[in-house]
Specification:
about 325 residues, alpha/beta, Rossmann fold, Dihydrodipicolinate Reductase, domain 2, 2 domains, seven-stranded mixed β-sheet, six-stranded parallel β-sheet, about 20% strand, globular
């Protein structure tokens, strides 16, 4: 198979992970070139991985790679996606598409106008448990759903500086749940009611966010979902999805590293060390995400998450964030 050149912009924690996954999962089929605003950091990561470092983002684009992975700060997502579209290069970008849904619109318009290939990083769509839940529900094995519960719980908060620029807990964390729920059920969320609390670091409240929150989400057919998130799940990183149907129930995330213990006597669970970060919890999904992008670049597979789908999840997160602020249920604006 002919090798392809993939450029990766941003070699921070998640960018370095994507770079390592590209090389580990693609072997000799991918020639990787990395770039970063800190050229010395790009050189260090490239040396550690055994790949090439470009001297700048401009130099990387000048290489005319077959695909580009964007793993930089949110404010740079849209400009870099648009630059890749203008250059006719397929692109993978971490979520969100832009710092707001309004700022995402030029990207969506460019994709619709040009037919550009843009994959957005909602990695749960590549997670084995979520894929099995989608299959089981789609096959009718659960019957109709009467209740859905989704949890995203970080074991510790990120720096307050990150939280201040994140757009809020629902936009940063729960947007993954909103995306996976709409993807799994094939239905849109039309209304949300949200509440939150601050019992951890007062600095989180000082920058206008909450450290824990729950949204009641209503789907088109009236099905309800409780979507919860927190920054302070000291037991470990916990991402779960419970689908309760008229025929059967299914839980995603109840593996040996589930970050809770049973209160029932003579029943010990879980058996393994809890996950500490989302990198641990979704390590396999992140590897599949890069495999999927390489296939997409080669025109050999579908797009796991389009710009339109990612923006739709962001609209739900916007409504949840607004409900949290106003205390009033919000319709999802589309």
């Amino acid at each position: 198979m002919t090798s392809i050149v993939v450029g990766l912009i941003g070699v921070g924690r998640i960018g370095a992970m994507h770079a390592a996954n590209l090389l580990a999962t693609s072997g000799d089929d991918v020639e990787l070139v990395v770039a970063d605003v800190d050229a010395a950091r790009a050189e260090r990561v490239a040396a550690a991985l055994g790949c090439e470092a470009a001297s700048s983002v401009d130099a990387l684009f000048a290489r005319r790679p077959h695909g580009i992975v964007i793993a930089v700060g949110t404010s740079h997502h849209a400009p870099l996606i648009l630059r890749a579209i203008d250059a006719g290069i397929p692109v993978f970008c971490e979520k969100p598409v832009a710092e707001s849904t309004a700022a995402s619109q030029p990207v969506l318009e460019a994709v619709e106008r040009t037919g550009a290939v843009v994959q957005i990083g909602h990695q749960r769509r590549l997670d084995a448990g979520h894929l099995e839940a989608k299959r089981a529900y789609g096959a009718g094995e659960l019957g109709w759903l009467h209740t859905i519960r989704a949890v995203t719980a970080d074991s510790f908060p990120p720096p307050v500086e990150f939280i201040a620029a994140s757009g809020g807990l629902f936009r940063d964390c729960s947007v993954h749940d909103f995306d996976s729920l709409q993807w799994l059920t094939g239905q849109r969320i039309v209304e949300v009611m949200a509440r939150g609390s601050n019992n951890g670091d007062p600095a989180i409240a000082a920058v206008g966010d909450v450290d824990s929150a729950t949204a009641l989400a209503v789907f088109e057919d009236g099905t309800i979902a409780a979507v919860s998130a927190t920054r302070y799940n000291g037991a470990g990183h916990d991402v779960r999805l419970e689908l309760q149907g008229s025929l059967a129930s299914l839980h995603v995330g109840l593996d040996a590293s589930y970050s809770a213990r049973s209160a029932e006597p003579h029943f010990e669970y879980p058996a393994a060390t809890p996950h500490r970060t989302f990198h641990d919890r979704f390590a396999a999904a992140y590897r599949e995400e890069m495999r999927a992008f390489v296939r997409l670049v080669r025109e050999q597979g579908p797009n796991p998450c389009t710009v339109a789908e990612a923006i739709d999840a962001s609209r739900v997160a916007d409504a949840a964030q607004l409900s949290l602020t106003t205390g009033v249920a919000q319709q999802v604006q589309r």
